[in-house]
């Protein structure tokens, strides 16, 4: 029965409707209708159903121009339907590639590739000094080349450096007399031009501290300020998407039965969420960008926690240094900068969250069907996907996927907090990633019993013997007592399995202190080999 003939007959009719390729089922067709129409259509209290077959927007867009010429009267637009028959048909899919987005992606890859090449050429191939990639590289470098600034400051911690910086900046004067206490450091002179910290003997206060204290408080605050802001924003948009009910509905992921992000045309606002494919792709991927920034903060926090653990374990047993280019007993650094039991779960969590984000907010496209008539067709402005004039492009969202993403994100960001409640292994100074504190802990003993009889050769990671290259660095001056044997001792310590704790220093070290303190009551903390019989720090004993 044509629309023209409906004018001459009763408007109560039995209508058979066939689903278009874009329709998944009768339910998807109903979900696409205006909400007022859905309520009328789903009302089964009467003997017949009534709905507007073509909306006013469709008429305004001249979609039914041909029907109007055939005698269609808008006054007969409302039909009373007795029943509906739907037939599911196979969808016809096709692939579209927007050249603009492809070009942008290629340019981004080229920029990243050029940065990698520059870093390799500038800092690795043509580098004149050691490349410090891991904490093990830093320890190795500082053992071989002790920092004169931190001499006799083996108990220095990152919090001491922070307090000293505050004094330099004049932030507070309440640290006057800080040197007289059992912790902290003072400036050698009052002039801020001097950046040397005063050597100071301090009593050891043995305590089992938690991972939370191994990182500066500002690291925790900055990281969780970002993570919690993302979580709160996600909960807010989930609240808006569910109409304030916090009840998920629809389908998981991209589906025609889910809702679309649109602006109310009655408010006089232009619809920014339908039409241009490139713009909609950028809008739909904003959550991906936010998630990437969040993961960088999360991964950085996890890496710092692992570094604190690995550093603290150096006081529990003799362990090899983990470096970029192993020598002797040293071992190669992790491929992911984290052990697989840490790195793989982090990567899997990132992949899962990005997949959930793509399922939560996505670009929906349909070529043909009724979507354009409901939202205001045609909605394919700046069409670069090869869609027809009746194609439909919009940003859709899945409340079920949003809910799952929020739960997974909340669980993932709680992991560092749970790890922070664990106690650090061993009993060692806390340095974080502060290079000054790390340098203070790496003043090894020249009197070490490490074997240097075979300094003429060394083995690489493949077990082959190669000629040992002994570097003499410019700042190792003769008046500081550094000679080839001392450098050989330092180099061999760095290549061996080491442990941090109480070590016996050379006689000259104690001779310099005998006029100031009782050398029998003073010890030194640093890295040593197994032949040095490195001991544990003793409670309330003085170390310098």
Largest beta-sheet characterization: 4 strands, mixed
Overall average residue pLDDT:
72
Strand content: 5-15%
Gyration radius (Cα, Å) is: 35 Å
Overall SS class? alpha/beta
Tell me the count of domains.
4
Query: Which strand order spans the largest sheet, edge to edge or round the barrel?
Result: 4-14-13-12
Low-confidence stretches: 1-45, 166-196, 264-270, 456-481
- Bulk shape: elongated
Cα distance spanning the termini:
100 Å
Helices, by number, come to 17
Q: How many β-strands, per DSSP? A: 14
Which percent range fits the helix content?
A: 25-40%
Sequence-ordered SSE layout with sheet pairings:
Blueprint: H1 3-6, E1 12-13, H2 26-32, H3 35-41, E2 49-52, H4 56-60, H5 65-69, E3 78-81, H6 99-125, H7 135-144, H8 158-168, E4 202-203, H9 217-241, E5 259-260, H10 277-284, H11 286-313, E6 322-323, E7 331-332, H12 340-360, E8 361-367, H13 371-375, E9 391-397, H14 399-420, H15 435-440, E10 457-459, E11 465-467, H16 484-495, E12 499-503, H17 507-511, E13 522-528, E14 542-543
Parallel strand pairs: 1-3, 6-7, 13-14
Antiparallel strand pairs: 2-3, 4-14, 5-9, 8-9, 10-11, 12-13
Describe it:
- The protein has 544 residues and is of the alpha/beta class.
- It folds into 4 domains: 3-81, no CATH class; 94-128; 135-207 and 427-543, no CATH class; 217-252 and 275-361 and 398-420, no CATH class.
- It contains 17 helices and 14 strands.
- The protein has helices at 3-6, 26-32, 35-41, 56-60, 65-69, 99-125, 135-144, 158-168, 217-241, 277-284, 286-313, 340-360, 371-375, 399-420, 435-440, 484-495, 507-511; strands at 12-13, 49-52, 78-81, 202-203, 259-260, 322-323, 331-332, 361-367, 391-397, 457-459, 465-467, 499-503, 522-528, 542-543.
- The protein has a 4-stranded mixed β-sheet with strand order 4-14-13-12, with no helix packed on it. The chain has a 3-stranded mixed β-sheet with strand order 1-3-2. Strands 5-9-8 form a 3-stranded antiparallel β-sheet.
- The N and C termini lie far apart (100 Å).
- Residues 1-45, 166-196, 264-270 and 456-481 have low confidence and may be disordered.
